[in-house]
Amino acid sequence: MKDRVLINISKERMQTLFNEAENTENIALARRYIRLMEKIGMRMNISVNTSIKHSYCKHCKTPYKNPGIKLKNKMVQVRCPYCGEIRRIPFKK
Ligand SMILES: [Zn+2]
User: Fold this and answer.
1) Which residues are annotated as a binding site for Zn(2+)?
2) Residue 53's pLDDT is what?
3) Ligand 1 centre and the CA of 69: distance in Å?
4) 67 CA to middle of ligand 1, Å?
5) What are phi and psi of 91, to 5 degrees?
6) What Å distances lie between residue 79 and 1, 29, 37, 66, CA to CA?
């Protein structure tokens, strides 16, 4: 029972951290929030929300702001504006 409460609190904290990361203009700070969020997830053994996972670059841990998005063969191609990493996400309707 206690674990469930802890997991819920951790999930909330992760969401809050991601919101902060998205809202800040400071890229270094945003990256710190994302790393912290991943750490909490790892420690609590919680996977990051899929919607959150697709909203930041796995390579440089920066939230996507104005990423280059391309549609290609039912895949969304997202290009990170910061490190240039290209990511392909299956396109679901
Ligand atoms: Zn990147």
Assistant:
1) 57, 60, 80, 83
2) 93
3) 14
4) 10
5) -90, 120
6) 42, 21, 22, 9
Q: What is the mean pLDDT of the chain?
A: 92
56 alpha carbon to ligand 1 midpoint, in Å?
8
Measure 17 CA to ligand 1 centroid, in angstroms.
Answer: 18
Neighbouring residues of 12: CB distance < 8 A, sequence distance ≥ 6: none
Q: What is the pLDDT of residues 66-93, one digit of tens each?
A: 778 888 888 999 999 999 999 998 876 6
Q: How many domains does the chain have?
A: 1
Q: How many CB atoms lie within 10 A of CB 40?
A: 17
Whole-number pLDDT of residue 93? 60
User: pTM here?
Assistant: 0.85
Query: Containing domain of residue 83, as a range?
Result: 4-90
Residue 83 Cα to ligand 1 midpoint, Å, equals: 4
Mean pLDDT value of segment 34-41: 97
